[in-house]
Write a structure and sequence with these properties.
This protein is α+β, with helices and mostly antiparallel strands and about 180 residues long. It has helices spanning about 55-75, 80-90, 135-145, 150-165, and strands spanning about 5, 10-15, 20-25, 25-30, 30-35, 40-45, 50-55, 100-105, 110-115, 120, 125-130, 175-180. The protein has one domain: Aminohydrolase, N-terminal nucleophile (Ntn) domain (Glutamine Phosphoribosylpyrophosphate, subunit 1, domain 1). It is built from four helices and twelve strands, in the order βββββββααββββααβ. The strands form two sheets. Strands 1, 4, 5, 6, 7, 8, 9 and 10 form an eight-stranded antiparallel β-sheet that branches. The protein starts with a strand and ends with a strand.
């Protein structure tokens, strides 16, 4: 069986009118780190949507491209695009075999998309995917509840905590932010 390159931890935090999405830079092939500074969080659709991926790298990049196509088709409507992508992902023979998850967010909505057809919007403004996601999400949730930190500061600190606990998450963090348009 051949091994696949995997990207790891992505974390999104939304509070009031700000959103921050962070991803670590580590890519692994099996148990070997092959890249330390990968960019797994990026902007698409005229810089209005932030995506982050975890899982098989080539699969995740393919999904990001598919999401951008859906955004073009539905005039930037993230909700409709996410639902349509998840439907295609679940029903298409080729797409169904992709091994990745994605977080996609705009100035008002944040979604986790999976190959099972899931489109999940977090209840409390925090969601994460990947191998370090439990640590990152727990840390971010605690910081949101017990501090006055901004989303960017929260994702920075939570990702540092995740990187200190998860061997598939490193300290090379990429962060993208969006402010809600008024």
């Amino acid at each position: 069986m051949s091994e696949t390159f995997h990207g790891t931890t992505i974390l999104a935090v939304r509070d009031k009118d700000k959103l921050a999405v962070a991803g670590d830079g580590q890519v692994t092939l099996g148990t070997t780190v092959t890249k330390h500074k990968a960019k797994k969080v990026r902007r698409i659709y005229n810089n209005k949507i932030i995506t982050g991926f975890a899982g098989a790298t080539a699969d995740a990049l393919h999904l990001a491209e598919k999401l951008e196509n859906k955004l073009e088709q539905f005039n930037g409507n993230l909700t409709r695009s996410a639902v349509e992508l998840a439907r295609d992902w679940r029903t298409d023979k080729y797409l169904r075999r992709l091994e990745a998850m994605m977080i996609a967010a705009d100035d008002t909505k944040t979604y986790l998309l999976s190959g099972n057809g899931d489109v999940i919007e977090p209840d409390y403004g925090v969601i994460s995917i990947g191998s370090g996601s439990v640590a990152a999400q727990a840390a971010a949730t605690a910081l949101m509840k017990h501090t006055d930190m901004e989303p960017r500061q929260i994702v920075e600190q939570a990702m540092e905590i995740a990187a200190s606990l998860c061997i598939y998450t490193n300290h090379n963090i990429t962060i993208e932010e969006i402010k809600k348009e008024k």
